[in-house]
Amino acid sequence: MLSRRHFLRNSAALAATPMLPRKSAAWDHHTPLIAAPAMAQIAPEGYGETGLWTFGGSLPGTELRFRQGDQLAIRVQNDLPQATSVHWHGLHVPNAMDGVPDLTQTPIEPGQTFDYEFDLPDAGTYWYHSHQQSTEQVERGLYGAIVIEEADGPDVDADLTLVLDDILLTPEAKLAEDFDNPGGASHGGRLGNLILTNGTIDWRQTAHSGDRLRLRLINAATARVFQLGLSGMQGWVVAYDGMPLVAPQPVTEPFPLAPAQRIDLIVDVQADPGMQAHLVQYERDGGYSQASFDISGRSASAARPAPMPLPMNPGWTAPDLANAQNIDMRLEGGMMGQMRAATFQGETMDTRALMQQGQFWALNGTAGMTDTPLARLSSGESARMSLSNDTAFPHAMHLHGMHFAEIAPDGSFGALRDTILVMPRAAQDIAFVADNPGKWLFHCHMLSHQATGMKTWIEVT
Ligand code: C2O
Ligand code: CU
After folding, report:
1. 3-state class of 450 per DSSP?
2. pTM of the entire structure?
3. Which of 165, 255, 313, 339 could hold 122 in an S-S bridge, CB 3.0 to 4.6 Å?
């Protein structure tokens, strides 16, 4: 049986092989971004290649790199056997560019193209992914990183994008195709048996002792919450979900990275030459290497003081909580949950009937999309959303089109995010200014939860 342990043993045995090539070409704005089937060596050697769907022929898809203030103009060409669409996760795009089929655009049919065009006022780490049939299409590999460089970025020896994923392969190294498995969808979602960084089980790179690196972590998995830590490196979080922190936060303990979230780290390599430093991934039985740095020699750069904050992005205004519209957001359903009934397509039904319709989850008593939005906000209005997770599972809740601030228990604003992890039985308030007109999804980024009820929308007019 091909298992995670098996892969771990294999990847340890492979530690002596040369590093795999990494795709990160500069984006040529005139080349179409082609979504098409591709083969890639994902499993250890000896297992053969795995058939995927990718943007640009690689896993992750072509990394799109821009300078802050650039315009993105990309023609997406669909050479897949299914319709698709591209969502630019975390970017404050005009609504018609948001890539949500049937809400903001018609899907891109096989053989067709769609032109995405919008400005990039914000710097940071973002990602793009299919938003059509995403339990299948994201799992097959339709995602990639978007990096928007600050005009005046931090002084580092290397700027590395690390896209994390897990993938479920059969003993023949084929993608397991039961993407909508109800067992996964009604629990924590589909988990893979193989952990990937930039499409490989053994991502490694050479670094010098004393190097300062910027690590852009992106969780592209359909359901896995990564628990991460550092070894042989000292680090600071400088941004969440693309948005800089007011003050860098030292990494002192393992931290979660939920599906769709990003963390920008600045790390100083402390391991000595001949040793290794790691981004560590923690599981119940211990830590595994998520990314390895083989240390050779010492850095030529002088030791630097703790990093400065990244330059703030323009345009954020603090929500006016005194005059905010309050939106309740109860997360309900799933196995071991207490949900008794919910409304689906205008009809109220008990959980058993909902399950027969393939619906396991609900937001505020409603499973799936509705004709009218859950809330209407006028442009410039502030909103306070009170999330309460009444289920037995964590959920990574994502708002399209705008970042929100976490509200701390003392009422102060915390980090800006576009995706927030809400733990079982926990509550979390968030707030934002509805400054981007349009129809915006709010959904769980555990993609099988989204597909089975945990999805709604708001409208800003
Ligand atoms: Cu990254 Cu609606 O998704
Ligand atoms: Cu969920």
Report:
1. helix
2. 0.94
3. 313
